[in-house]
């Protein structure tokens, strides 16, 4: 069974981005994937900003990335780029921290003017970390996400395409050779 780590890079406790990450985690779990959700905002700030990879919580988060077959990066868009919180975490990963992994870059934002932030800011980082396969990225307008009873409802204009991207990512996971990821056996 493939394992997936959803990494939410929003600093907000009430983040729609984090809820989208949880939505994706639930969808992938229902498809038979072993899914964990790392909320970068919960890591100790001193260790994160001080790049202390020996701090237990940071070391555990880095190990979770290394152990995953697939990574979902969920970030809000700030100043036409992905969040600084996510950047701080990605900077702690080894040079080829995404080697052998499928990666789904996803961003939320208030306007479609930020839609290219994924391709011009986040995707190059994903590739520089050595991702085996970066699936089609997805940008979700904040206004298309409504919080409902602790979960979310996604507007039909975004719901269908989001489901398609999740399905693409799920299929990409099937192409990841589990036996070569960190020496694990299939």
Describe this structure in words.
- This protein has helices at 16-30, 45-49, 56-67, 84-90, 117-128, 156-174, and strands spanning 3-8, 34-39, 70-78, 81-82, 102-109, 133-134, 138-141, 145-148, 151-154.
- By secondary structure, it is α/β, with parallel strands linked by helices.
- Helix 1 links the parallel strand 1 and strand 2 (34-39).
- It is globular, with a radius of gyration of 15 Å.
Based on CA atoms alone, the radius of gyration comes out at: 15 Å
**Discrete helix count:** 6
Major sheet = 7 strands, mixed
List how many beta strands DSSP finds: 9
- Taken from the alpha-carbon principal axes, the silhouette is globular
Distance from N terminus to C terminus (CA atoms, Å) equals 8 Å
What oligomeric assembly is this protein in? Answer: single chain
Order of helices and strands: EHEHHEEHEHEEEEH
Mean pLDDT: 91
Report low-confidence residues grouped into runs of 5 or more.
179-186
Indicate the percent of residues in helices: 25-40%
Quote the beta fraction: 15-25%
Structural class label: alpha/beta
Helix/strand layout:
Layout: E1 3-8, H1 16-30, E2 34-39, H2 45-49, H3 56-67, E3 70-78, E4 81-82, H4 84-90, E5 102-109, H5 117-128, E6 133-134, E7 138-141, E8 145-148, E9 151-154, H6 156-174
Parallel strand pairs: 1-2, 1-3, 3-5, 5-6, 5-7
Antiparallel strand pairs: 3-4, 8-9
